[in-house]
Amino acid sequence: MPLYLRIANELYLKRLIVGGFEGVYEFAKDFRNEGMDRTHNPEFTVMEMYVAYKDYEWMMNATETLLEKVAMALHGTTEVPVGDNIINFKAPFRRVTMYEAIQEHTGIDISNMNEDQLRDTCRSLGIHVEPSMGKGKLVDEIFGAKAEGHYIQPTFITDYPVEMSPLTKNTVANPDW
Questions:
Q1: Is the CB of residue 139 less than 8 Å from the CB of residue 98?
Q2: Rounded to an integer, what distance in angstroms lies between the CA atom of residue 103 and that of residue 111?
Q3: pTM for the predicted model, two decimal places
Q4: Among the four 21, 33, 80, 91, which has the fewest Cβ within 10 Å?
Q5: If DSSP codes are grouped into helix, strand and coil, which group holds residue 95?
Q6: What backbone torsions phi and psi does residue 115 show, to the nearest 5 degrees?
């Protein structure tokens, strides 16, 4: 019997939105062969949701409402022990732009830096850079090395460089995000 491992349900759900459904979601088993390490499991269960005519602010609100209700339904509280931490799923969650997160944890404002300035900043922070890294990858490297690990509580990191997510809608505030 032929069996198939699905790598994503995204395209099937987006087709439904294009076909006229205003909102769709699915719980799905996915498999991705992108390498495995402590932060990437190749097989996982995901809930994906798409809603027409809504933006990422709406999606953040929906996500935090869903997670708060799930925590309450499962644990009777929004404070859930995870390892050595107590994770609080009480809405609203903190919202931080990628640039604000980097500035918060490095003291450096990179929001208006060009690629060469970002390379110099990476070097000054002890972050290895490759010649092939563009602006988006450099910002991602700084965020990953200096900011990401500080976020334990539910937090939305927003306003990524457009180079990191070229198929997403640009923000109204800045077309480079």
A1: yes
A2: 9
A3: 0.83
A4: 33
A5: strand
A6: -60, -40
